[in-house]
Each structure stands twice: as C-alpha cells, then as structure tokens.
Amino acid sequence: MKKYVPVLFLGLLIVIIQACTSGKAALKEGDYYGAVLESVKRLRESPKNKRAKQVLTQGYPMAINYIDTNIQDGIKADDPNKWRNAVDGYTKINYINDQIRTSPGAMKVIPKPQSRFKELAEAKEKAANEAYNAGINEMMKNTRQDNKQAYFDFKDANSFQPGYQQSIEMMNQAEFNATLRVAYEEINSSQFNYGSFQPTINSLQRLFLSFKPVSQKDTVPPQQLLKIIFNGYQQNNRPIITTTNETQSRQIVVGQTKGADGKMVDQLQTVTAQITYFNKTISANSSANVTITDTESNAVLQSLNIDGPYNWQYNWATFQGDSRALSGNAASLAQRKEVWPNGQDLFNQSIRNLQSNLGQQLRSFYSQY
Fold it and tell me: N or C of the chain: less Cβ packing under 10 Å?
C-alpha cells in the first residue's frame, strides 16, 4: 500500500494548486467576488493555505468596494433597475459575510467581515416598488411580449416584499394576458384505433402557453387552432431478406499421440463450415397531417405531414459442414430460427414514433412563443 501514498499525495497537491490558481486567476480577471468565495472555500478545507490567504487579503476589500461602487453608480445614474441591482449587490456582501464566518481559516484573515443587512432591507422595499411600477408600465404597452415581462416584474415585486400592493393579482393578470391559447382537435380518418395524441399535446403545456380541446370552452376565444388528422397505418407484409455468405475454419484437437521424445502431442484436425447469414426487415409507417391556423386572420401558420416509420429487423444463420467450426456471432445466430414479428407490436411502435415526431415538430414551432 505504501507505494500508492506518493501518488495520492501528488493528486491532492494538484487539486489544491489548481484551486488556488483558479482563485488567483479570478482575481486577475476582475472577478473579485468569485476570487473571494474560492479563497474562503479553500481556507475552510485547509485553514493554513498561504495562497488562499493572499487572495482573500487582496481580494476582499476590492470585492466590497466594487459591489458598493456599482450600487451607488446605478443609483446616481437613475438606472431603471437600480434598486433591484442594489438588492443583488447587498445580498452578495451578506453572503460573503456568512461564508467567512463559517470558515475559521478565513476569519483569521478577515476577523470582522462587513454586512449590509439594514441596507438590504431598505433596498428590498424600494426594489419592490421599482419592479411593481415597471410591471404596470409593461402592461400598458398591451402586447403579449410586454405582458410576459410584466409577469416577471410583478413576481420580483412579490419576492422582495411578499404581498406587495396587488403584485400577486397583477402577476396573474399579466400571465393571463401573455398566454397564447391554442384549441386543438384530432380527427381519425382511418380504420385504425391509434389511441390519442392528447398526452403529446399536454406535454407542450408551459407558462404562457395553453392547449385545450376544441370541445372545452375557454374563458376567452383561442388565438390558434391546432388540427391533427390521423391518416392511417401501413405495413409491408413482404419482408426484405438479404443474405451474406462466409466460410469459417478452425483446428480442433481430436486426440493425442506419443511423440519421438516420449511426450504426448495433440492431434489436430481442420474443420470447416459454410455459413449463410440472413437479415429480415419489415417496414411499417403511420402518418398524420398537422395544420395550425390563426383564428383571427384564418391564416395557415403551419401545415405539414408527419410520419412514424419503424423498421423491424431480425438476424439468423444456417450452415453446412462441421458445427465445430462455428465461432463467435456465427455460433449464436446458427441457434436461431426464422421468426415473424407481432403485428400489434409493429403498430404500437410506429404510433410511438409518430407521437414522438409530432411532439418534436410542435415543440419546434411553439418555441417561438
């Protein structure tokens, strides 16, 4: 076991050096906050780490000054997000404070870390008002995209001051205004019972995007109509069978004889087999037509055909000659017999592929919303 100790020590040393290097690199790149956190982390693991102490000594005052300066510059410049940025800055200073106080090694370097708890509380009050007013302004523009932004503004206001004014009610209203409502219907124009595309469509539901069946009336008319027509299913009952041939030979021991030196010597015999490999493929496919229409202008936004192809394959082999010549894959395939697939399994897999392709197409289209 002793021979592994230097290797383990070397590995640990490399990790420590890399960690210290990353802290110094962050400091050089102007990421004072990241450099401080990295050095505190290293001092928690190794309280006597000299490089980490150096980084923390140098980086801590720079980090605090940099954050404070950014906050004050934003306030003076009347940045529309000045108080939200202040909340973020004061939160970072307090987080550094917490991290140092939970690291004995870091406390020896910075015995009295600064905090901004009072300033943070005051900034949250002003940030709530700032975010709330921003949400009101966005809603007044009365576009779907602006209502999206308003939703997040009101959400911010509520996170800074829970229950601030009517932030929850306004957030719900903004979400309602920003939501694209899609009514969908599916039509089976075939004799096959494919089930339903509803699970696929339901998987598309997300914030600002709602899908409901045409039969289910919504509180407001839908903006789009999604129509899916299942066209049918086809299966090629005539399989495609391809063959390849191979000859395998090997030497086997068939006995032993005594050699001239009196030692026993193996008697070898070459055995041969001619192998024919078979590959059977049966194809199946299901298809559907998808149309997405704007309900106000009646313009077709998307129209495409979607397939659900599936190729069932099976391999086996036959041989002539000595079975002892068979090895590897040939020996395994020679144990198989020709089989036919279950028709229902082919159908089910084709439908699953169709549903998967349908979901991909719809996700691609609605990603723009």
Answer: N
